[in-house]
Amino acid sequence: MKRLFSRAPLLGVVVPAWGVEDYLDDCVRSLLAQTHTRWEAVVVDDGATDRTGEIADEWARRDSRISVVHSANGGLGAARNLGAAHVRGDYLAFLDSDDVLPPTAYADLVGALQRSGSDFATGSVVRWEGDRLVEPPWMRRLHRPLRGARIEDRPEILGDVFAWNKVWRRSFWDAAGLAWPEGLRYEDQPTTTRSFLDGSFDVLDEVVYRWRIREGSITQSRASSMEDLADRWETKRQALASVRAHGSAEVEQVFVDRVLAGDLWRYFLLVPGAPDPWWRLLRAGVLELWGQRSLVHSGLPPVHRLAGWLVAEDRRADVVSLMEWAGTLDGPAPRVQDVATGAWRLSVPHTVLDDSTVPPEALALREHEV
Description:
Blueprint: H1 2-5, E1 11-17, H2 24-32, E2 39-46, H3 52-62, E3 66-71, H4 76-86, E4 91-94, H5 105-116, E5 120-129, E6 132-134, H6 137-142, E7 146-149, E8 166-169, H7 170-175, H8 188-198, E9 201-211, H9 225-246, H10 249-260, H11 264-268, H12 276-290, H13 302-312, H14 316-326, E10 335-337, E11 344-346, H15 360-363
Helix pairs in contact: 8-9, 9-10, 9-12, 13-14
Protein name: Glycosyltransferase family 2 protein
GO molecular function: glycosyltransferase activity
Organism: Nocardioides renjunii
């Protein structure tokens, strides 16, 4: 009898919204289509200057599970925190307003937590590439199924830095004092890192999120790139501090090599034509975060490991030459095998880089790269 009258757990969903008048309808429709129907959502109109707030209000009039908070623009982290303060529930989720959910997303995540008792759950993601939805290989690799895990079971999961493919048990979120950094880009990483370090978690191979990468959302304009890079370093700094406080040498090494370095290639591509202050900030961050352990040990592709070594050595002209050459390649960089040792290394034209001035480890290829 108790089971007959039991109710599904309540999920609170925070939907921060700014400048999404073309996308918010699709986002909310995907929420309404969830097979887990016991949810309430708060749309946080973060000072939008288009019709975002009006569209949100119209949805709130149509469905009593949706409410709207209108606020002055404070950025994504502040909007998420404000929404979390307004929403109720046994569980907590964050949904970006230009993305959509597969119909069973929350049923899969909440159902896993109901069965495991874990603190939060994370699932895989597909993103739009043209008209197709594609699951990135690295996302598929990270989301091999796991239940009731701790970070030592799979430290590379720290590379799953996203807020929106997860559901947290609300009691864990509050007890751990979790919140999103405010006033920074890339605010997801410090909070998701703390979650993985402090909690138990379930990893699902089901796709629970459809990610729309809008034009201009990753590559920042040159005018804002100093601020963008400063924010990137600050969020990496915060995440690394949490990992070091956790106290596991193995987790820290995986994090520094395979997670923290993962997106640096985007910034190495910007070196040609970058202003001097930006170059100095790039190098300062590389030295701060990888000064004790060179980027030659990282999980970056071979050309970008070499670029990282050159950045640390302040060889800007060589980084420019290397990146411009790499941009002309149709596939993997050329490689050559040492006749005496059988070892493989990058083969960079002498007109691009005098490789006699580079240590062998900065050119070395790994077995899976040959």
